[in-house]
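Z., the sequence and structure:
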Amino acid sequence: MSAAMQAALDHPRHTLMSTRTALGTYVSVTCTVQCRKAHAAHEAAQALEQAFSAIALVERTMSIYRADSDVSRINRMPGGAAAPRLRVHSSTWAVLQ
């Protein structure tokens, strides 16, 4: 048996799936982690939380349905050269560029 195959057997996969409401719909995230058995569930759970945190950031900063989001604040600004500057999250700025 190759070393890679043995490593795969020694470090089984652990899969977690979670569905939450976000972005005006249901969002499902599935995470598969291959690591030592004792840590697989914990690492998969951490990865799921990181994914949902990233989704929550998008919702907070870029949703057109939240009055306090960067996108909603941009949409309320007057147009033209005299428009005031508006500070936005770096993720919002990256999307707009």
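Helices lie at 3-10, 37-62, 70-76, 90-96. The chain has a mean pLDDT of 83.

Let me know what you think.
H.
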